C-alpha cells in the first residue's frame, strides 16, 4: 500500500514538475523594454505545450478589473503561437498570464507620445544652444529615463552603459569610426606636408570665384558616387581649404557635400547602397509572392526616386545661381563680407585647420602630395569593393553568364564588404601620405606620425557625435518611435 501511495505521489510530482518546466521554457520573442499605448502588437510565444484549453489574459496591475482575454493563433508544425493585435488601453504595468500553466509576463507601458520626445528634445536643444553633443545627450538621457521607469538617475547611468557605451559595438559601426579617424589622420599628414595647400593653389586657377568653387564642390560630390561615407570625408576635407579661400561659408560647403553624398549613392547603379536596397526589394517580392527581378525594378524606379533627384538638382541650382535664403543667406553674407567662414562660437566637427597641422614655411606646396593619397583611397576602395564583392557573390552562386554587364557589376558591388574596404583604404592612404612626406624629406618619421595622430585627434568630436547619433537611434528603436509615428 505504501509503495502504491508513493508511486502515485511521485507521478503527481513528476506531472507538476513537467508542467513547471514547460511553463519555465515559454518565452516571448523579441521582447521590448517598454511598450506604447496606441500601438498594436503581435506577440509570438515559443515552447508552448499544445493545448486548446489554454487561455491568455492581459491584466492591469493597478486595475484588476481591466482584464481582456487575448485571441490565439497556433503556428503550424511548431510549439509556438501568436497573440495578434494586442493593444494596451492605458499606460502603467500589465501582466500577461497563462493561468493553467501558472506563467506570467510583465510589461511596462508608457504613453505613445513620449516616444517622440527624445528626438524632438535633441533637435530643439541643437537649435536653442547650438551644441550638438549636449543636444544628443539630452535626448538619450530623456529616452533612457522613460525606459527605466521614469527614474532620471537610473536613466543617466544607463545612458552611459546601455546606450552610449555599446553604440559602436558592432563590426560595421566600429569600421565606420576607424575609417573616419584614419582618414582624418591621412588628411593631417597631407596638411602638414603642404599637400592641402598645394591642391588649393592648383584648383584655384579653375575654381577662381565663388560660383565655380561651389560648382567644383558639387561636381566632386557627384563623381565620388560609390559610397556616402567616403564622399563626405573626401570631398569635405579636399574642398574645405579652397572654399575657405573663396570665402564660401562652411554652412554652404556642408550643404553641398550633404546634398550629393547620400543622394548620389542612393541612385547610383554601382554603389555600396545597392546591395541593401535590392535585399529589401527581394524580401518584399517574396512576401507578395511576386517573381520579379529586383535589379530591373530598382533601375526602373530611379526616375521616381524624387528625394535624391530633387536634392541633387537643387544643390546644382544653388551652386550655379548663388541664390541663398534665410540662415544660409546670413552665413554667406558673413563669409563674403567679413571673411568669417565659421560663425562666432562655432566648433568644427573636424578641427583640421589648427596650427599643429599647418606646413612649415620652407615646405614646398605640391598638389600631388594630396592627390596621390586621396587617389589611393579611392582606388583601393573601388578595388576592394570589386574583389570582396566578387568573392562573396561567387561563393553564393549569384554570378552567371546570363546577367547583363551592368547587373553583373552591381551584383558584385552590392555584395562587397564595404565597411572593411573603407577601413583598409583609409589606413593605406595614410601610409602612402607618410611615405611620400618622408621620401621627399618634407617631414621626419616622428613629424609624419605626429601629424597623423593630430589628424586623428581632430576627428574626435565627429566620432563622439557619430556615437551619440547611433545611441539616440537605439533609444528610438527601444521606444518604438517609428512604430508610433
Strand/helix succession: HEEEEEEEEEHHHHHHHHHHHHHHHHHH
Strand order of the largest sheet: 2-9-8-4-5
Overall geometry comes to globular
Structural class: alpha+beta
Rounded to the nearest angstrom, the radius of gyration is 29 Å
Beta-strand percentage? 5-15%
- Give unreliable regions as ranges: 13-21
Q: How many DSSP H or I helices? A: 19
Helix content: 55-70%
> What is the count of β-strands?
9
Q: CA-to-CA gap between the ends?
A: 68 Å
Question: How are the SSEs ordered, and which strands pair?
Answer:
Blueprint: H1 2-25, E1 27-28, E2 35-36, E3 41-46, E4 57-60, E5 67-69, E6 72-74, E7 80-86, E8 92-98, E9 103-110, H2 117-129, H3 132-147, H4 152-164, H5 171-192, H6 195-204, H7 210-223, H8 228-245, H9 250-267, H10 274-288, H11 294-301, H12 306-321, H13 326-338, H14 368-395, H15 405-414, H16 418-439, H17 445-458, H18 460-479, H19 481-484
Parallel strand pairs: 2-9
Antiparallel strand pairs: 1-3, 3-7, 4-5, 4-8, 6-7, 8-9
Amino acid at each position: 500500500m505504501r509503495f502504491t501511495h508513493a508511486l502515485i505521489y511521485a507521478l503527481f510530482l513528476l506531472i507538476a514538475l513537467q508542467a513547471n518546466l514547460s511553463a519555465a521554457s515559454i518565452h516571448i520573442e523579441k521582447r521590448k523594454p517598454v511598450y506604447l499605448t496606441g500601438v498594436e502588437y503581435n506577440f509570438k510565444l515559443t515552447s508552448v505545450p499544445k493545448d486548446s484549453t489554454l487561455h491568455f489574459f492581459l491584466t492591469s496591475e493597478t486595475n484588476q478589473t481591466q482584464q481582456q482575454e487575448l485571441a490565439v493563433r497556433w503556428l503550424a508544425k511548431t510549439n509556438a503561437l501568436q497573440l495578434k493585435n494586442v493593444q494596451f488601453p492605458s499606460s502603467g504595468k500589465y501582466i500577461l498570464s497563462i493561468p493553467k500553466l501558472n506563467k506570467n509576463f510583465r510589461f511596462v507601458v508608457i504613453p505613445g507620445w513620449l516616444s517622440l520626445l527624445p528626438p524632438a528634445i535633441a533637435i530643439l536643444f541643437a537649435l536653442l544652444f547650438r551644441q550638438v553633443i549636449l543636444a544628443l545627450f539630452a535626448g538619450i538621457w530623456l529616452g533612457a529615463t522613460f525606459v527605466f521607469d521614469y527614474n532620471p538617475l537610473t536613466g543617466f547611468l544607463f545612458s552611459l552603459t546601455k546606450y552610449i557605451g555599446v553604440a559602436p559595438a558592432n563590426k560595421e559601426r566600429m569600421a565606420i569610426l576607424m575609417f573616419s579617424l584614419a582618414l582624418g589622420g591621412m588628411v593631417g599628414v597631407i596638411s602638414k606636408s603642404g599637400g592641402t595647400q598645394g591642391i588649393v593653389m592648383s584648383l584655384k586657377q579653375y575654381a577662381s570665384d565663388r560660383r565655380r568653387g561651389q560648382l567644383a564642390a558639387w561636381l566632386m560630390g557627384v563623381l565620388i558616387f560609390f559610397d556616402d561615407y567616403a564622399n563626405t570625408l573626401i570631398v569635405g576635407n579636399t574642398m574645405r581649404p579652397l572654399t575657405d579661400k573663396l570665402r564660401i561659408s562652411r554652412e554652404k560647403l556642408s550643404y553641398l557635400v550633404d546634398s550629393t553624398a547620400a543622394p548620389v549613392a542612393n541612385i547610383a547603379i554601382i554603389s555600396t547602397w545597392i546591395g541593401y536596397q535590392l535585399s529589401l526589394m527581394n524580401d518584399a517580392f517574396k512576401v507578395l509572392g511576386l517573381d520579379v527581378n529586383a535589379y530591373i525594378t530598382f533601375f526602373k524606379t530611379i526616375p521616381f526616386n524624387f528625394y535624391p533627384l530633387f536634392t541633387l538638382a537643387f544643390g546644382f541650382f544653388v551652386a550655379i545661381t548663388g541664390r541663398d535664403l534665410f540662415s544660409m543667406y546670413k552665413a554667406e553674407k558673413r563669409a563674403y563680407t567679413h571673411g568669417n567662414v565659421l560663425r562666432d562660437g562655432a566648433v568644427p566637427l573636424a578641427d583640421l585647420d589648427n596650427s599643429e597641422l599647418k606646413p612649415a614655411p620652407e615646405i614646398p606646396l605640391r598638389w600631388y602630395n594630396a592627390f596621390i593619397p586621396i587617389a589611393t583611397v579611392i582606388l583601393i576602395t573601388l578595388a576592394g569593393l570589386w574583389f570582396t564583392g566578387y568573392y562573396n557573390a561567387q561563393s553564393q552562386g549569384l554570378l552567371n553568364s546570363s546577367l547583363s554587364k551592368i547587373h553583373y557589376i552591381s551584383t558584385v558591388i552590392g555584395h562587397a564588404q564595404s565597411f572593411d574596404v573603407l577601413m583598409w583604404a583609409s589606413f593605406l592612404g595614410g601610409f602612402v601620405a607618410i611615405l611620400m612626406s618622408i621620401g621627399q624629406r618634407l617631414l621626419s618619421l616622428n613629424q609624419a606620425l605626429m601629424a597623423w595622430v593630430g589628424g586623428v585627434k581632430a576627428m574626435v568630436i565627429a566620432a563622439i557625435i557619430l556615437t551619440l547619433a547611433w545611441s539616440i537611434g537605439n533609444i528610438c528603436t527601444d521606444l518604438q518611435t517609428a512604430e508610433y509615428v
